[in-house]
């Protein structure tokens, strides 16, 4: 019997001005009916391109260079657009990453689902279409479908939109569903819901699913089999149990180890050193060699073939060659979680005191939204305080109020006893407040001016405050700070667009550090980074904090990294601070239901398990 | 022996620094650039600026014996109905046409940037007021403004016509500047600079200006173009530059007479120079615009 | 409840419209009074020169020219509201009468031209977007860029030179041959050249805009979803992309009404076509301020009205855009 989908030696490349970018290199795998295959890898590893290539949704600059895409034994790699059209929706369809942009904003949700229903059954009666739309909406968990089908996408929240996209994708009863990072753009708690929904639907309808994700922890919930991709190739593929319990490729080890859940109780997170390679001029040998601490000499010479570990488990690493030495994996040694010793509770002075902070934004003339509602907390000198909450919970507003970007509607913010909300006091202490408090943003490409060189970006605060640089010139100061955050001097002359996300974030940190701040406020500094890079940045923060001893307000949307980095945590929910406590207390005895939900949403690298099961395993 | 090398091959060596191959660009520097337009515009520009060295006759001299001659050996492009040498007038008048284009664009750009920056950084109510004002100003037909301004500034001349065109053509750039400034103002690096205590001018100079320059560059080029068109149209209609001040537009104002006598060269030659110049500017403008947004199609 | 809201909404629009027109008329009035030239001349014509100083004073007194400007304005406004806009100096006739005799011609030229531009631009834009970067698209784009670069007056001259003087196919001026006022075919012949210029000189700007807007839509993420559910290219372009740009296109076209009409002014002058354009040109040359003022206010009203229509279209049709943002995104940028 032929497999439902079989990919053989697929190669996809893009034409770029710099040369040919080999996005997918020699990929082969099989997908059986009714199973969930997860494709995992860092951004730019070609996982999303692979899915789009199978559906022939790639832009014109991309082309399938060679390989076969066989559906039930028929090769569709050479099929024309007209023929592909008939397959799309019925054989396979896709759920995309960002539900905010994938729905047509000018059509009602119902109309968009109906369109998908009608494509394949143009003669369907109006009433039948309507009932089918309602059925689909109920299937994906949109209640009150009757009235909601007449709403426009902008009336919907992110999670609801993703459900609608899923309904559209399922309209033609496809046999294969591609889910391209379906939860990345969503809040953690919603993320878990959507994943559960995917799994439920998959079980109900028996749709084979290819789930693309950058997070091994996320896919553990749903995947039957897992394929790990790196630099355009599948480096390891196997059943979920095999991958999670017995990974063989050093890259998979790295991915697993950088999950914060596995670093509990250690001083620093494990990180994969370096960055993914450029796919335009791939270097000789294994693309992962230059990041692999266990690299063999041959890795720099020859690309490893896929070695068979078991019937279902394959990995492309020379370590599996019988001539290679046996490596003992360290990460398994830490089964015992210990919390790092909490710093001595010396009666430190309170550096930042937020009292009854309330912020209101007018929506229209009559309505207003209470973004922050009576929030009070204190941060002591030298402490790392985490503020966690979903998007729209008001955590960024708090940060911006602290930094005097917004004026709070009411309440006080005392910084070293200075009420920063009071204009007179602010003016009197202006210099101190502007130099001793620094802000770091989420990396979105807009936190650094695209038209300034790195050296100018780092030196900007010095120029603004007319401070004499400690190390002679601004340039030397910039070079020093850059080295300090782990980048060499060659980056001084570069523009932000030439840097990767992690490097840009390092530059932003260097800019904040140049003034030697007392208080560092970081607003979701790692949210848009890859897992392995996230770990690098968190390690950097942790290291810098130890050296500098600055006070740190760390804002995040999930608890995974907070647990590792912070001393105390506050959880925000709908503008209110619902829970504050030390990391230990909060994780051990969460009080508020939302905190419990957040905790259960932490991705656990255990197949098929939600958080509860992991806890049992870890604390057993 | 072979065993040894095999073992060596499979020894753990860990992370080795690997040289990253220099990303060389496959394409030549001029690829995609409007080369032909740049060269042509360069020639016209150089010719006009150095008109002194090219002119074969005094462009203002009215040779009453040789009027309305078709192109010939002595008068390369012929003479107009007043007996002036068109070849010399083209270069001499081109200088004035281009000058008016540049001057009026400079004026309109300065007004637009100031207006746009103020409107973009101002509080909501002032912004709304300013935008309403521009709308009303736009609704007053240009013709009236031109006549009034000319009346105030006296007899039409290079300066007065530049000011007239400049003052009436800044609104579209101003709107773009305003939108850009509004967008940039909330971007994170500006917020960061404000947190560090960067003042208004620091932000304007270091952050806003370099970023909106690229987005208005295309419009500025297009503005030069439309200023030249407007000058020639006004002069052609007889409410711009007078006949004595030679520009491509005022040369064309003789064309109604030329139509009667069928002297095609009086209409055709200055017109071709005008159109070619405009076309080159458009090509360059479009190139600048393409630079700003590039994305692949999904279809 | 809903009805009341609509009433309020349009009531507010009407109020804004009236206030804008008032401000406009005030501006134009003040400007025309500031402009050089003796306003007495515009009332009494050449007779002014023969007047004795006493007569002049009396006349000024009667017309209220000695009053403060704002008193004069109120006076003028009062007359205007009763339908009296004064006399045209050049034509020695009531201003409204002069304008009325020309308005029809301009409406025919501008109106038909506008509809043609509107329809052809849409077709051409879709055609170009459909064949993006293929030969057809490239050729149309190049030709379009060239036509958009040619100044209207010179283009008109060239057409006259070719079709009227060399080939003698079409008439070069006026709206009819003298003696053949009632002949429809003759009028059509006179319209061909001016209409061609009006259409060609505006066509590319809008066609290119449509093309770029469609291409922008085609690059949006929702196209991928539409494609992955099995829709064909035609259904995506017409059912999704076009549908999304139509509101903004409609509003841009509404803003462009005065633009296209303004374009006819130059064409009218070159072809000596008796319309509003030639009228304003003449009134400007002969300093006929009474006439010019009314013409300015009329075209100003048209601009304001069209802007408001555009805004209303945006607010009512497009579910995405609300309120003030509408006009910002759809501003007309002349290229």
Largest sheet of chain C: none
**Number of distinct helices of chain B:** 13
Structural class per helix/strand content of chain C?
Answer: mainly alpha
Helix content of chain B: 55-70%
Name of the top-level CATH class of chain B: Mainly Alpha
Q: Please tell me what the overall shape of chain B is.
A: flat
Uncertain residue ranges of chain B: none
The first-to-last residue Cα distance of chain C is 45 Å
Mean pLDDT of chain B: 79
Architecture per CATH nomenclature, i.e. the level-2 architecture of chain B: Orthogonal Bundle
Spell out the helices and strands of chain B N to C. Answer: HHHHHHHHHHHHH
Question: How would you describe what is shown here?
Answer:
- The complex is a heterotrimer of chains A (620), B (299) and C (335).
- Chain A has 620 residues and is of the alpha/beta class.
- In chain A, α4 (109-120) runs parallel beside α7 (158-170) and α15 (454-465) crosses α16 (474-484).
- Chain A is globular, with a radius of gyration of 26 Å.
- Chain B has one domain (76-298): Orthogonal Bundle (MetI-like fold).
- The longest helix of chain B is centred in the C-terminal third of the chain and has 38 residues, at 200-237.
- Chain B is flat.
- Chain C is an all-alpha fold.
- Chain C has 2 domains: 1-90 and 289-335, no CATH class; 100-285, Orthogonal Bundle (MetI-like fold), CATH 1.10.3720.
- Chain C has 14 helices and no strands.
- Residues 322-335 of chain C have low confidence and may be disordered.
- At the B-C interface, α5, α6, α8, α10 and α13 of B face α1, α7, α8, α10 and α11 of C.
């Amino acid at each position: 019997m032929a497999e439902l989908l079989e990919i053989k030696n697929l190669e996809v490349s893009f034409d770029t001005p710099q040369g040919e970018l080999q996005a997918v290199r020699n990929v082969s795998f099989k997908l059986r009916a009714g199973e969930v295959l997860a494709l995992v890898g860092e951004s730019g590893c070609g996982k999303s391109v692979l899915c789009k290539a199978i559906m022939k949704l790639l832009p014109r600059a991309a082309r399938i260079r060679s390989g076969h895409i066989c559906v039930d034994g028929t090769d569709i790699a050479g099929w024309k657009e007209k023929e592909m059209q008939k397959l799309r929706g019925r054989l396979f369809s896709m759920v995309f990453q960002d539900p905010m942009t994938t729905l047509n904003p000018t059509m009602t949700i119902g109309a968009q689902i109906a369109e998908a229903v009608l494509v394949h059954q143009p003669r369907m009666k109006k009433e039948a279409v309507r009932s089918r739309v309602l059925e689909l909406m109920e299937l994906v968990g949109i209640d009150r479908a009757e009235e909601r089908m007449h709403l426009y996408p902008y009336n919907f929240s992110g999670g609801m939109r993703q459900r609608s996209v899923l309904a559209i994708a399922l309209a033609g009863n496809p046999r294969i569903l591609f889910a391209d990072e379906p939860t990345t753009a969503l809040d953690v708690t919603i993320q878990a819901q959507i994943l559960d929904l995917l799994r439920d639907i998959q079980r109900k309808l028996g749709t084979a699913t290819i789930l693309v994700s950058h997070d091994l922890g996320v896919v553990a919930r749903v995947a039957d089999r897992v394929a790990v991709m790196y630099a355009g190739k599948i480096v390891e593929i196997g059943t979920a149990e095999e991958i999670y319990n017995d990974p063989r490729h050093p890259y998979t080890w790295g991915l697993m180890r950088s999950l914060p859940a596995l670093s509990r109780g250690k001083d620093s997170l494990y990180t994969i050193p370096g960055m993914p390679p450029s796919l335009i001029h791939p270097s000789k040998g294994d693309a992962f060699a230059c990041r692999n601490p266990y690299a063999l000499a041959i890795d720099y010479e020859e690309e490893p073939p896929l070695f068979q570990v078991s019937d279902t488990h394959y990995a492309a690493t020379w370590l599996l060659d019988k001539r290679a030495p046996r490596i003992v994996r360290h990460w398994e040694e830490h089964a015992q979680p210990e919390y790092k010793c909490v710093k001595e509770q010396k009666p430190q002075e309170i550096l930042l005191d937020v009292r009854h902070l309330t912020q209101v934004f007018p929506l229209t003339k009559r309505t207003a939204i209470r973004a922050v509602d009576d929030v009070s907390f204190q941060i002591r000198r030298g402490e790392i305080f985490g503020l966690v909450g979903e998007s729209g919970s008001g955590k960024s507003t708090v940060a911006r109020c602290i930094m005097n970007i917004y004026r709070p509607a009411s309440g006080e913010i005392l910084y070293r006893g200075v009420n920063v909300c009071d204009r007179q006091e602010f003016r009197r202490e202006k210099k101190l407040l502007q130099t001793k408090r620094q802000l770091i943003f989420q990396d979105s490409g807009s936190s650094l001016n695209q038209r300034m060189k790195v050296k100018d970006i780092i030196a900007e605060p010095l120029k603004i405050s007319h401070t004499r640089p400690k190390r002679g010139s601004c340039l030397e100061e910039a070079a020093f700070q850059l080295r300090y955050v782990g980048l060499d001097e060659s980056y001084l002359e570069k523009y932000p667009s030439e840097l990767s996300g992690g490097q840009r974030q390092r530059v932003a940190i260097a800019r904040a550090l140049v003034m030697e701040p007392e208080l560092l406020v970081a607003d979701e500094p790692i949210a848009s980074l890859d897992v392995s890079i996230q770990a690098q940045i968190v390690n950097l923060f942790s290291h810098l904090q130890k050296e500098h001893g600055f006070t740190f307000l760390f804002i995040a949307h999930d608890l995974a990294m907070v647990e590792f980095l912070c001393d105390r945590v506050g959880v925000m929910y709908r503008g209110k601070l619902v829970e504050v406590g030390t990391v230990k207390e909060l994780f051990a005895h969460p009080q508020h239901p939302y905190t419990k939900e957040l905790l259960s949403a932490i991705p656990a690298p255990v197949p098929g398990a939600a958080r509860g099961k992991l806890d049992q395993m870890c604390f057993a | 022996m072979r065993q040894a090398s095999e073992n060596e091959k499979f020894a753990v060596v860990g992370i080795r620094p690997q040289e990253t191959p220099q990303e060389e660009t496959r394409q030549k520097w001029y690829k995609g650039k409007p080369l032909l337009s740049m060269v042509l515009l360069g020639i016209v520009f150089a010719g006009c600026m150095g008109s002194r060295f090219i002119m074969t006759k005094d462009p203002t001299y009215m040779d009453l014996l040789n009027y309305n001659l078709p192109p010939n050996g002595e008068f390369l492009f012929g003479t107009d109905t007043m007996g002036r040498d068109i070849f010399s007038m083209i270069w001499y008048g081109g200088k004035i046409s281009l000058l008016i284009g540049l001057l009026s664009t400079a004026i309109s750009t300065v007004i637009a940037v100031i207006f746009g920056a103020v409107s973009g950084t101002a509080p909501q109510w002032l912004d709304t007021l300013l935008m309403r004002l521009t709308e009303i100003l736009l609704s007053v037909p240009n013709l009236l403004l031109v006549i009034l301004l000319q009346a105030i500034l006296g007899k039409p001349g290079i300066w007065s016509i530049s000011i007239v065109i400049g003052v009436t053509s800044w609104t579209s750039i101003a709107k773009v500047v305003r939108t850009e400034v509004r967008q940039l103002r909330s971007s994170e690096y500006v917020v960061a600079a404000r947190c560090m205590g960067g003042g208004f001018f620091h932000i304007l100079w270091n952050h806003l200006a370099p970023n909106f320059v690229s987005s208005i560059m295309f419009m500025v080029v297009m503005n030069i173009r439309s200023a030249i068109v407007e000058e020639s149209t006004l002069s052609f209609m007889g409410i711009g530059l007078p006949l004595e001040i030679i520009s491509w537009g005022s040369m064309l104002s003789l064309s109604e007479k030329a139509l009667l006598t069928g002297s095609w060269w009086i209409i055709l030659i200055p017109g071709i120079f005008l159109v070619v110049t405009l076309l080159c500017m458009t090509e360059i403008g479009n190139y600048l615009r393409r630079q700003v947004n590039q994305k692949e199609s999904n279809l | 409840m809903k009805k009341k809201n609509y009433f309020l909404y349009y009531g507010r629009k009407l109020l804004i419209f009236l206030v804008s027109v008032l401000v406009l008329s005030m501006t134009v009035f003040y400007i025309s009074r500031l402009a050089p030239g003796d306003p007495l001349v515009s009332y009494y014509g050449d007779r002014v020169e023969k007047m004795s100083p006493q007569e002049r004073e009396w006349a000024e007194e009667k017309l209220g020219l000695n009053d403060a400007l704002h008193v004069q304005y109120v006076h003028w406004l009062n007359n205007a509201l009763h339908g009296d806009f004064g006399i045209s100096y050049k034509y020695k006739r009531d201003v409204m009468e002069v304008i009325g005799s020309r308005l029809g011609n301009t409406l025919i030229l501008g109106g038909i031209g506008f509809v043609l531009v509107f329809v052809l631009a849409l077709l051409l834009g879709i055609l170009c977007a459909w064949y993006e970067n293929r030969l057809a698209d490239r050729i149309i784009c190049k030709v379009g860029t060239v036509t958009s670069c040619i100044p209207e007056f010179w283009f008109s001259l060239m057409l006259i030179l070719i079709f009227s003087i060399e080939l003698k196919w079409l008439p070069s001026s006026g709206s009819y041959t003298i003696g053949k006022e009632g002949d429809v075919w003759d009028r059509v012949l006179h319209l061909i050249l001016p209409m061609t210029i009006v259409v060609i000189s505006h066509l590319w700007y809008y066609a290119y805009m449509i093309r770029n807007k469609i291409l922008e839509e085609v690059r949006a993420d929702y196209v991928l979803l539409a494609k992955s559910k099995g829709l064909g290219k035609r259904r995506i372009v017409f059912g999704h992309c076009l549908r999304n740009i139509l509101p903004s296109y409609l509003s841009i076209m509404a803003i462009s009404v005065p633009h296209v009409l303004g374009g006819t002014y130059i064409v009218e002058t070159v072809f000596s076509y008796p319309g509003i354009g030639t009228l304003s040109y003449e009134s400007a040359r002969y300093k006929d301020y009474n006439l010019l003022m009314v013409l300015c206010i009329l075209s100003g009203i048209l601009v304001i009205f069209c802007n408001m229509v555009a805004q209303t279209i945006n607010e009512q049709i497009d579910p995405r855009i609300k309120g003030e943002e509408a006009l910002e995104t759809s501003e007309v940028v002349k290229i």
